[in-house]
């Protein structure tokens, strides 16, 4: 059984949040709450991404961008967390860049992060995308690296 599609009009530059719930015979569960801001018309849209393959020193980011029919340059930013006291050891920095060809549907890309510090509970990343009309910034996503051993 699938849920009905809702036709909702969103306002550009207003922040929205959502989460996905699933129910089966064993009970219900809820996914994390994700936030997004619809871009202004013509700007690329950066969708919420996800992190997989997390090890103590690496992780794989998967994200999607709607290029709005124009070539897009993207940047992946990382803000490393700390193991103690919520401090930030380093400021945000670019860990990957790339180009996406013009497309009429969202295009996925992956970035392998390496050299991460084991046991970091609050590593955060976000994606920016720039086309001829300007730049959009995706929502900040958080992940944790496990401790060694």
What would you note in describing this structure?
This protein is mostly beta strands and 149 residues long. The protein has a domain at 41-143: Immunoglobulins (Immunoglobulin-like). The protein is built from no helices and 12 strands. The protein has strands at 16-18, 21-24, 27-30, 34-36, 45-52, 58-66, 72-79, 93-100, 107-114, 123-131, 134-137, 141-143. The strands form 4 sheets. Strands 7, 8, 10, 11 and 12 form a 5-stranded antiparallel beta sheet that branches. Strands 5-6-9 form a 3-stranded antiparallel beta sheet, with no helix packed on it. A hairpin with a 2-residue loop joins strand 2 and strand 3. The mean pLDDT is 84.
Rg measurement, Å: 17 Å
Biggest pleated-sheet summary: 5 strands, antiparallel
Supply the helix-strand structural class: mainly beta
Sheet-strand content, in percent, reads over 45%
CATH class of the domain at 41-143: Mainly Beta
CATH architecture of the domain at 41-143: Sandwich
Distance between the termini: 43 Å
Number of helices: 0
**SSE arrangement, N to C:** EEEEEEEEEEEE
Low-confidence parts:
none
